[in-house]
């Protein structure tokens, strides 16, 4: 159980792969995509 083990988190980090033990971190939405300027109502 260590760097050479395919099924452990440390082994996944060593190999640079992802799986059940080390899932990929999803990117968060940026502020620009959440607030769409073009859809705002223009005041008269």
Count of helical regions: 2
Q: What would you call the quaternary organization?
A: single chain
The gross shape turns out to be: rod-shaped
End-to-end separation: 68 Å
| Count of strand segments | 0
Which runs of at least 5 residues are low in confidence (pLDDT < 50)?
A: none
Order of helices and strands: HH
Main sheet specs: none
Structural class by SSE content = mainly alpha
User: Fraction of residues in helices?
Assistant: 25-40%
Report the average pLDDT across residues. Answer: 80
Q: Specify Rg, calculated over alpha carbons.
A: 21 Å
- Percent of sequence in beta strands: under 5%
Family: Belongs to the bacterial ribosomal protein bTHX family.
Pfam family, one: Thx
Biased composition (Basic residues): 1-13
Region (Disordered): 1-22
What does this entry show, briefly?
Residues 1-22 are annotated as: Disordered. The chain is mainly α.
Chain-wise SSE layout:
Elements: H1 9-15, H2 31-34
Describe this structure in words.
The protein is an all-alpha fold and 44 residues long. It has a domain at 9-36. 25% of the residues lie in helices and 0% in strands. It contains 2 helices and no strands. The mean pLDDT is 80. Belongs to the bacterial ribosomal protein bTHX family. Keywords: Ribonucleoprotein, Ribosomal protein. Residues 1-22 are annotated as: Disordered.
């Amino acid at each position: 159980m260590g760097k050479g083990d395919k099924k452990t988190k440390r082994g996944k980090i060593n190999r640079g792969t992802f799986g059940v033990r080390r899932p990929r971190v999803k990117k968060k939405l940026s502020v620009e995509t959440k607030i769409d300027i073009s859809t705002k109502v223009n005041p008269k």
